[in-house]
Design a protein that fits this description.
The complex is a heterodimer of chains A (470) and B (299). With 470 residues, chain A is α+β, with helices and mostly antiparallel strands. Chain A has helices at 2-11, 14-39, 57-73, 87-96, 108-116, 124-129, 134-139, 143-149, 171-176, 188-197, 225-228, 245-261, 263-271, 297-304, 342-352, 367-375, 386-391, 397-405, 418-433, 439-468; strands at residues 47-53, 77-83, 103-107, 150-151, 154-155, 158-159, 163-170, 200-201, 208-210, 290-294, 310-313, 326-329, 331-334, 409-410. Chain B has 14 helices and two strands, in the order αββααααααααααααα. A two-stranded antiparallel ribbon of chain B has the order 1-2. Classes of the chains: A alpha+beta (470), B mainly alpha (299).
């Protein structure tokens, strides 16, 4: 301490120190004043609401156009759009800290986990206050999109970036293999048969140079394979991933591809696959002939593989009665609990979820249709305006509309442990496709683990309910 | 304390205040809070509910917890000695005083200042099973032996060794510390040893290593802490916290992160953090005790 004091004495000139302290204090004061001004009433007299969203690029530009349109459409609210990486985690932390955005554009699975943790406002009261019944509100959407936003009997979010998936195939490779380029496989057996015909090996080395199909490419929808086979991941009460025969059959099918082409050979072939958003994408560069991809694929093909001759159709039927199977996904707009302007946030969300059904030209598109047109995606709303339907930039948009209408369209299970669920399920997929475990072993491990986790989650939920009631 | 000393003390305290506040708010409070949360059912979004030692007892039955611990120790057991040997070896080479030494030192240190994410992306290409530089170099050897080159991150057996190899990329920091230690070794000791006929190896064993033993000890402790907390590189290279492929790279910190921020089980994650802390404390104490007789402090 004595040395410290001596050094202080030697090095610090008191008048200089006082002047510095004064400067620091003034700076602090200015900072506090500026912060307080920032939090209060804005000079324009409007309510400014914050909207956090995950997307950059074309998706963000399309949403920015909707935000601008909303801001112009009235003179009371200004939406401030902010593109944020890891929006789910940041919304989580901001909500826990009591200072969330007014509108959060989160992933669909966040809707279930966040609402179970009481971090979101249910939208039912807002819907009713606007003169709708919840049923009327929901009826505007295709069933699969309406269903994904309701959880435990309430509406927690509104679809903002919808998508459907379909089988995409490379017509050039079909022609080269002697297949009809306009005739996609319609059943699982045909998919396997076409895949075999479209696969090639180097005659000199025996190495695979082209495959018709690989379940792991891109593998994003592998979680839905059990449902595609007619199985169930969860029955609303219990985890059923390891107890449904169809689920087992789907993983046996996955393992079959590695067994058929050889683990080492497949590994060597897939090791050279490039990133999805690049010309080295194995579908775009002709290494894989058929993939399951979303409505967004057209954007990427145009960017990275101009002139690519691509066919798009529903998933081949893998189980009787499950025609037009497809995976629906969406981002959702939600109002975090603790938002400062929930009413204004709802007004913006409602605007995004409506459209102008009479629009004849692109400039007349509004809300949801303006967004989906800009993002080149299908609208989740049942009613499409003439402009949206006829002028849509995606050449196969009608197919995606049919898939959205399909009673066999599925979305992720509405379970608050979905993050963990999908992680465990992807472990099953990986270990099965790498032949590290039999489908039976992998599913038994997964079932056991998820059942315990769900029990824990249910116990935690019950504990919280008991904690709130008194 | 005189009036002037008191004044200076207050001034000093004022300038140190930001650090005190930062330490209290961003370190001490979270550490203490995490200990409390580790005994709670806590999701971050709701207030914690006390559940006693349930989080700790759950860990015993959590197969993935043990898997992540095994992966972490496997990685640490390989990367730590290898990293220490390579960085010491490089420091010895860079302490020989040959021409252009400053340039060599800079070159070997450079990888340490490359951002982790950029380095990870680069290594992903080096480890690419089909077009990677490493397999291109290994190709002739593998053909000679009649085996296929490893698929690295595509193969659960090779993913961890790939990360160990990659960890050598960042030895520059410990190399610099060794180098500083080596330059403190008095030259007269080497001269007298040379006069006595000691060869290079004997000089290394009897002079260099004992005299830089505090530096080796420091690097060992830092290495233990660092290798047990490995996160960023794996997160970037394997595309998230899944530990792909087949959980072969699921390290402790990754599992902790996904438990906390994906599964919203902050109580369980806090308990895991405390177990890791205790493991590191235990290993540090063990390393200190085991090396006590071999670490020599000058003066």
């Amino acid at each position: 301490m004595a040395i410290f004091l001596r050094n202080c004495k030697r090095q610090l000139d008191p008048p200089l120190v006082l002047a510095s302290m004064g400067a620091v204090m003034r700076l602090l004061l200015v900072g506090i004043v500026v912060t307080l001004l920032g939090c209060g009433e804005r000079p324009d007299g409007k309510v400014h609401i914050s909207y956090w969203e995950k997307w950059g690029g074309a998706e963000a530009e399309a949403m920015q156009r909707v935000v601008d349109q909303f801001n112009r459409s009235q003179n009371r609210i200004v939406v401030e759009y902010l593109s944020i990486a890891n929006v789910d985690r940041k919304t989580l932390v901001a909500t826990a800290g009591g200072d969330p955005p007014d509108v959060a554009g989160v992933w669909l699975n966040n809707l279930y986990s966040f609402s179970d943790a009481d971090a979101l406002l249910p939208l039912d009261d807002f819907i009713r206050a606007d003169g709708f019944t919840v049923e009327q509100w929901q009826a505007r959407y295709y069933l699969v999109y309406a269903d994904m936003c309701s959880y435990r009997g309430k509406i927690w979010g509104v679809v903002s970036t919808p998508s459907m998936t379909a089988l995409h195939w490379n017509k050039t490779l079909f022609r080269a293999a002697g297949l009809d380029p306009d005739r996609p496989p319609r059943t699982l057996a045909e998919l396997d048969e076409f895949a075999e015909k479209l696969s090639k090996r180097d005659p000199a080395t025996g190495q695979i140079v082209q495959l018709g199909f690989l379940p792991q490419e891109p593998g994003w929808f592998a979680w839905s394979f059990p449902q595609w086979f007619g199985g169930r991941l969860w029955d609303g009460t219990n985890i059923t991933i390891g107890t449904t025969p169809e689920n087992l059959a789907s993983y046996q099918w996955v393992a079959g591809y590695t067994q058929k082409y050889g683990l080492a050979q497949v590994r060597a072939f897939t090791a050279g696959f490039g990133n999805f958003a690049s010309p080295q994408n194995p579908f775009m560069n002709g290494q894989i002939a058929m993939v399951f991809q979303g409505v967004w694929m057209n954007n990427y093909l145009r960017q990275f593989a101009p002139g690519f001759d691509c066919g798009v159709a529903a998933w081949p039927t893998a189980a009787p009665g499950l025609e037009n199977f497809s995976v629906a996904d969406a981002d959702v707009l939600a109002i975090p609990r603790g938002a400062k302007h929930p009413r204004e946030a709802w007004e913006f969300i409602r605007y995004v979820s409506t459209s102008n059904p009479q629009a004849e030209t692109v400039s007349e598109l509004r809300g949801m249709e303006l967004l989906c047109f800009g993002q080149q995606k299908n609208s989740p709303l049942r009613e499409w305006s003439p402009a949206f339907e006829k002028l849509h930039p995606h050449p196969q948009i009608k197919l995606f509309r049919q898939l959205a209408e399909s009673p066999n369209a599925v979305h992720i299970p509405k379970i608050s442990i979905w993050q963990e669920f999908s992680r465990e399920q992807s472990q099953v997929f990986e270990s099965v496709r790498l032949l590290g475990a039999t489908p039976e072993e992998a599913l038994a491990f997964c079932q056991n683990r998820l059942a315990k986790s769900w029990e824990l989650q249910s116990r935690s939920f019950a504990r919280r309910q008991a904690d709130v009631k008194p | 304390m005189t009036r002037g000393e008191r004044h200076n003390f207050r001034t000093g305290l004022f300038f140190a205040l930001p650090w005190f506040v930062g330490l209290s708010v961003f370190t001490i409070y979270p550490v203490v809070a995490s200990l409390f949360y580790s005994f709670c059912d806590f999701s971050v979004l709701q207030s914690p509910i006390w559940i006693g030692s349930e989080n700790y007892s759950r860990m015993w039955q959590d197969a993935v917890f043990w898997k992540s611990l095994r992966n972490t120790f496997f990685y640490a057991a390989l990367s730590l000695p290898l990293g220490m040997a390579v960085s010491l070896g490089l420091a010895l080479l860079l302490n020989t005083g040959v021409r252009g030494m400053a340039a060599f030192r800079t070159i070997f240190y450079l990888p340490s200042i490359v951002p982790v994410v950029a380095g990870a992306m680069l290594w992903l290409w080096i480890f690419n099973g089909q077009y990677g530089l490493l397999n291109w170099a290994l190709g002739p050897v593998c053909r000679l032996l009649g085996v296929a080159p490893p698929a690295w991150f595509g193969d659960p057996r090779w993913a961890k060794p790939a990360l160990v190899l990659m960890s050598l990329w960042g030895v520059g920091n410990s190399m610099i510390i060794y180098l500083a230690g080596l330059q403190d070794v008095p030259a007269e000791l080497y001269e007298s040893a040379e006069l006595d006929g000691a060869n290079w190896l004997r000089r290394l064993w009897h002079i260099t290593l004992p005299l830089i033993s505090p530096v080796i000890y420091f690097n060992l402790i830092m290495g233990i802490i660092g290798s047990l907390q490995v996160f960023t590189t794996v997160f970037v290279m394997t595309g998230g916290a899944d530990g792909s492929p087949s959980r072969s790279t699921l390290f402790y910190a990754l599992y902790l992160f996904s438990t906390a921020f994906y599964d919203l089980r902050m109580g369980y994650a806090s308990a895991m953090a405390w177990v890791l802390f205790l493991l590191i404390v235990g290993l540090t104490i063990a390393a200190t005790k085991l090396s006590a007789k071999r670490v020599h402090y000058a003066g």
